[in-house]
Write a structure and sequence with these properties.
It is built from 7 helices and 12 strands. It is an alpha/beta fold and 253 residues long. It is globular, with a radius of gyration of 17 Å. The structure holds zinc ion (2 copies). The site of one zinc ion has 8 residues, from loops.
Length: 253
């Protein structure tokens, strides 16, 4: 729903993805505008089950309060579970108390430690593990492993945003079917990339190669670059099976 980085532009919104599995939708990060994009894409908010927030930079969580409020107007009754750094609850509680006093449902916060690799969610259909990442603030990605169904092999999806290139990530996500890895900059801005603790498209591709991922999806594009083909080209030189994240695009794992 959003494949831009911190600065919203007419071309791209900040981060937001939906992972659909059986009858459940998992929202991964919730930048500004996510609720509108969900509606635009015909995604049913009623199916929204769990929200996972990688870190507390605004481009990954500014959309939450609006979404929570709207779900209330829709008379949701099912609790909404949010997994994030413990500071998120501290930040959101006063807003919920002020704006969402009579919410029709419960918002349940689950504190995660982004520095540690751990299983944070498990049910009959999926297991979700955190992936410690390296960024300006405590950040983790998420690894989804489908629970075994009799006839098909388990599918795995890894989400890594925001992060510098970090070799240790590769061993945890080895052999994933699809890897989403941030690619904020092209090689032209490699210095800026290091300073802000992000990755270039080439580094994202190196991660996919190292981890032997089936497919790489790159996103979190800087507003400095409006031609996304440059990202794609730089990544494909290292890892040919790369595609660009695009708003509205759906990808089968
Ligand atoms: Zn970001
Ligand atoms: Zn960030």
């Amino acid at each position: 729903m959003g494949c831009g980085s911190a600065m919203p532009t007419f071309q791209n919104s900040p981060t937001g993805q939906i992972l659909e599995l059986c009858d459940k939708s998992f929202l991964i990060d919730c930048g500004e505008g996510v609720q509108l994009k969900m509606r635009q894409m015909g995604l049913k908010t009623a199916r929204l089950y769990t929200v996972l927030i990688s870190h507390l930079h605004g481009d990954h969580c500014f959309g939450l309060i609006g979404l929570i409020s709207t779900l209330g107007m829709m008379n949701r009754t099912q609790p909404l579970h949010i997994y994030a750094h413990s500071d998120l609850e501290k930040l959101l509680r006063p807003l919920l108390d002020y704006h969402c006093k009579d919410l029709s449902y419960e918002v349940v916060f689950h504190a995660i430690n982004p520095r540690k690799r751990e299983v944070i969610f498990e049910d009959r259909t999926v297991m979700i593990e955190t992936i410690p990442l390296k960024h300006k603030v405590p950040t983790c990605g998420f690894l989804f492993t489908e629970r075994h169904r009799d006839t098909e092999p388990q599918k795995r999806y890894a989400y890594c945003s925001d992060t510098m290139f970090r070799e240790q990530i590769a061993e945890q996500i080895e052999g994933v079917d699809v890897l989403f890895h941030e690619a904020t900059y092209t090689e032209q801005y490699a210095d800026k990339c290091r300073l802000t603790m992000h990755s270039t498209a080439k580094q994202a591709a190196e991660m996919a190669k190292l981890a032997q991922a089936g497919k790489l999806v790159i996103g979190h594009f800087s507003a400095r670059e409006d031609d996304h083909e440059v990202f794609l080209h730089e990544a494909q030189e290292v890892f040919p099976n790369t595609v660009l994240a695009e708003e509205g695009r759906s990808i089968e794992v």
